[in-house]
């Protein structure tokens, strides 16, 4: 596994008094070991089924590959309908591993259907999609674990209606349902309509589901080697078996983030230096925010835990947010993602000989420029006492992406255990869902509707 974690720039060694000392790390060793113990004890149990995902999917992987190859032959477009944990993983992995302009490539080079993820209910966006796809040549993968999410089910209703009008009974061949085995509406509809179905294991929650059929089917359809992704996750899992901070990269990062939160660093910035990894930061933002942002701990004490995730992109955001990172409050931990080698490169040609301020670039490559800019930004931040660490991937391929996702999931699980919170629930999200049901007058939400009506009458005073 060639993913390394470099946390020198979190330590007093590099940051001086704003850093974390070896003694502080040692003080947290017991807490880290107990978090490790807790996570290991829960492996495959409760909502930790995601820890089995790298190991127990041989059969489903075979079916996914067979389905993917049928889709590739038969369809021009593959559309994921889902939201949150049912969409961010497929987006992140597709963007990380496929050609930057995949959908624009000719079919011969693409070797698979065009790929879209519709993770919102903005009518303009869905209508825009209908402008560029022929639904008769499209397969829709409806992904919802609960089978009840309003956004996804609305999309489903629109699509199935459209398909039935155009194709009658054949509509069912255009829908694949990825959902719970026996809970929620989608599985019932799938059985009734005869859709092909993939199961999201009960013990795997939305934001931890990318390495389940949620992410594996979309990835396989666009030609990503899902067996390599799972192998990367397995190898990372082995790296995370040690209970010692110095030997377990996810445990080290969790402990550093935990101490940082105690120091008042309540913002976690993820800044990959590769466009292809931009949406890994999006996926991580959900994982980190929804897992750790909790009002109460496991004993019911009010803790208001969590760190606000911020998504940034190197080098683009050097020209915007980095000013704040350097000179604003000391309330951030920055996670850089560095790439050992890009999939391709471009040499900056000779030119501008009379302009030394430009000419110094000539003969260098764009990947060198990316890397040097990362090192320069990191140096500058560190010199100013700004906490940062770097996750370095040797390459951007299925193996390393599987390993990276698993590393970040482990880091989140350990951090949640250290905070003594329920990492796997999301009452704050459910609250919003319930309020939306009430607004629509859904049966069973009458009390909620009443509560909302009496909460505070809209005041004219604060509207201008
Ligand atoms: O992580 C989570 O559990 C959530 O973000 C869900 O993935 C999201 O709310 C969508 O839920 P579902 O897959 O049930 O439609």
Q: Total number of β-strand segments?
A: 10
List bound small molecules. 5-phosphoarabinonic acid
Question: What is the CATH architecture term of the largest domain?
Answer: 3-Layer(aba) Sandwich
Radius of gyration: 24 Å
Number of helices: 19
In percent, how helical is the residue content? Answer: 40-55%
Mean pLDDT score = 96
Low-confidence stretches: none
How many domains is the backbone divided into? 2
Order the strands across the largest sheet as they lie in space: 1-10-9-7-8
Which SSEs are present, and which pair or pack?
Blueprint: E1 3-6, H1 12-15, H2 22-27, H3 29-41, H4 58-74, E2 77-81, H5 88-97, H6 107-110, E3 114-118, H7 123-132, E4 138-144, H8 150-167, E5 175-179, H9 185-193, E6 196-199, H10 213-221, H11 226-239, H12 249-262, E7 267-272, H13 278-292, E8 308-311, H14 322-327, E9 332-341, H15 356-359, H16 366-383, E10 388-395, H17 398-419, H18 427-439, H19 446-455
Helix pairs in contact: 3-12, 3-17, 4-10, 5-10, 5-13, 11-17, 12-17, 13-17, 18-19
The structure holds 5-phosphoarabinonic acid (PA5).
């Amino acid at each position: 596994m060639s993913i390394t974690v470099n946390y020198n720039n979190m330590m007093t060694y590099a940051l001086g008094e704003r850093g974390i000392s070896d003694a502080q790390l040692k003080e947290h060793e017991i807490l880290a070991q107990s978090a490790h113990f807790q996570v290991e004890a829960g492996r495959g149990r409760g909502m930790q089924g995601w820890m089995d995902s790298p190991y127990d999917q041989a059969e489903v992987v075979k079916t996914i590959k067979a389905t993917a190859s049928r889709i590739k032959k038969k369809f021009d477009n593959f559309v994921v309908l889902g939201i949150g944990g049912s969409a961010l993983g497929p987006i992140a992995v597709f963007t990380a591993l496929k050609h930057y302009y995949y959908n624009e490539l000719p079919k011969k080079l693409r070797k698979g259907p065009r790929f879209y993820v519709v993770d919102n209910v903005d009518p303009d966006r869905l209508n825009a999609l209908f402008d560029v796809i022929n639904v008769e040549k499209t397969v829709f993968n409806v992904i919802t674990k609960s089978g009840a999410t309003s956004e996804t089910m609305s999309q489903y209703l629109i699509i199935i209606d459209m398909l039935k009008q155009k194709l009658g009974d054949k509509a069912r061949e255009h829908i694949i349902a990825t959902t719970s085995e026996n809970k929620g509406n989608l599985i019932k509809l799938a059985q009734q309509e005869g859709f092909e179905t993939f199961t999201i294991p009960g013990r795997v929650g939305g934001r931890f589901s990318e390495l389940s059929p949620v992410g594996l089917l979309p990835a396989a359809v666009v030609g990503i080697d899902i067996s390599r992704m799972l192998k990367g996750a397995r190898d990372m899992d082995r790296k995370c078996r040690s209970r010692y901070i110095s030997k377990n990269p996810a445990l080290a990062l969790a402990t550093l983030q935990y101490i940082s939160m105690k120091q008042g660093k309540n913002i976690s910035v993820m800044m990959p230096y590769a466009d292809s990894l931009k949406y890994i930061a999006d996926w991580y933002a959900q994982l980190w925010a929804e897992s750790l942002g909790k009002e109460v701990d496991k004993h019911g004490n009010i803790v208001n835990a969590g760190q606000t995730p911020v998504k940034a992109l190197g080098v683009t955001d050097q020209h915007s947010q980095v000013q704040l990172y350097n000179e604003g409050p000391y309330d951030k931990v920055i996670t850089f993602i560095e790439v050992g080698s890009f999939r391709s490169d471009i040499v900056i040609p000779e030119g501008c000989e009379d302009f030394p301020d430009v000419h110094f670039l000539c003969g260098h490559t764009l990947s060198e420029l990316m890397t040097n800019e990362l090192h320069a930004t990191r140096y500058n931040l560190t010199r100013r006492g700004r906490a940062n660490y770097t996750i370095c991937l040797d390459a951007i391929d299925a193996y390393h992406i599987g390993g990276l996702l698993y590393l970040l999931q482990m880091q989140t699980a350990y951090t949640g255990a250290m905070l003594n919170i329920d990492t796997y629930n999301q009452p704050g999200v459910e609250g919003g869902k319930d309020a939306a049901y009430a607004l629509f007058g859904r049966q069973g939400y009458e009390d909620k509707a009443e509560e909302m009506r009496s909460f505070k009458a809209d005041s004219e005073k604060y509207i201008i």
